Amino acid sequence: MNIYIKDSEIATENIVPGKRVYGEQLFEKDNLEYRFWNPNRSKLAAAYLNGLESLNIAEQSETLYLGASTGTTVSHISDIAKDGFIYALEFSPVSMRKLVRLCEKRPNIAPILGDATKPKKYLNLVSKVDLIYCDVAQPNQTDAFIDNMNLFLKEEGFGIIMIKSRSIDVNQKPQKIFKQEEKKLKEKGFKIVEKVKLEPYEKDHICFLVKNIF
Ligand SMILES: C[S@@+](CC[C@H](N)C(=O)[O-])C[C@H]1O[C@@H](n2cnc3c(N)ncnc32)[C@H](O)[C@@H]1O
Question: Which InterPro entries match (predicted)?
Answer without folding.
Answer: Fibrillarin, SAM-dependent_MTases_sf
